[in-house]
Amino acid sequence: MKQEKAVVVFSGGQDSTTCLFWALENFAEVEAATFDYGQRHALEIECAKDIAEELGVKHHILDMSLIGQLAPSALTDTGIEVVDGEDGGLPSTFVPGRNLLFFSFAGILARQIGAKHIVTGVSETDFSGYPDCRDAFVKSLNVTLNLAMDGQFVIHTPLMWLDKSQVWELSDSLGKLDYVRTKTLTCYNGIQADGCGECPACRLRRKGLETFLEKKSGTVLPAGGSAEEVLLP
């Protein structure tokens, strides 16, 4: 892989930015693909642009606004409240077909630029139950892409079996924990870095960070304590 080229599906969030750093360590050349699908916050795209520019990564922004027209959700319609799924149901942030289209278009882009590898930050460990984040889906689509374009693409999912604390651990092992914490945007309310602290994405991110920092420092946070009480490296 060290001599080959990869496309990273890149949102500017914690997971995809960690994957971008992972790809930069593992491939000779890396380009990033961000999808403009009418997401709640344009800042997400600006954040992705800024990170790609700062890291010197060629960045493609692809228009996927049709998704919002076909499958409105809390991620594409500010009139829909962000709520967790109930009784095994999907949360309001699920966008049907999003990863199916994203990975397919990433494959088309990869073919055009001579890349054989596609990297994405989906995970089946700490996720919201999205069916298009599952390992079985990714493997199935990998086969489909190769059949559709007579190619030999490999979709890499370095976070597939990691929980959020382990994702923080990976970014730390790459020497990028502080960068990922301060530069990325995961928050559903469009607040960079540590976010609003209240939405489901922020709660998951914060819990993972606190768990990792406790493990790394050997310090148990007091009840009601926060990651701020443990110094970042």
TrEMBL record:
Binds 1 zinc ion per subunit. The keyword Metal-binding applies. Its cofactor is Zn(2+). Keywords: ATP-binding, Ligase, Metal-binding, Nucleotide-binding, Queuosine biosynthesis, Zinc. Pathway: Purine metabolism; 7-cyano-7-deazaguanine biosynthesis. Its EC number is 6.3.4.20. ATP binds at residues 10-20. Zn(2+) binds at residues 187, 196, 199, 202. It is an enzyme of class 6 (ligase). It catalyses: 7-carboxy-7-carbaguanine + NH4(+) + 2 ATP = 7-cyano-7-carbaguanine + 2 AMP + 2 diphosphate + 2 H(+). Homodimer. HAMAP family: QueC. Catalyzes the ATP-dependent conversion of 7-carboxy-7-deazaguanine (CDG) to 7-cyano-7-deazaguanine (preQ(0)). Belongs to the QueC family. This is 7-cyano-7-deazaguanine synthase. It comes from Bhargavaea changchunensis. The gene is queC.
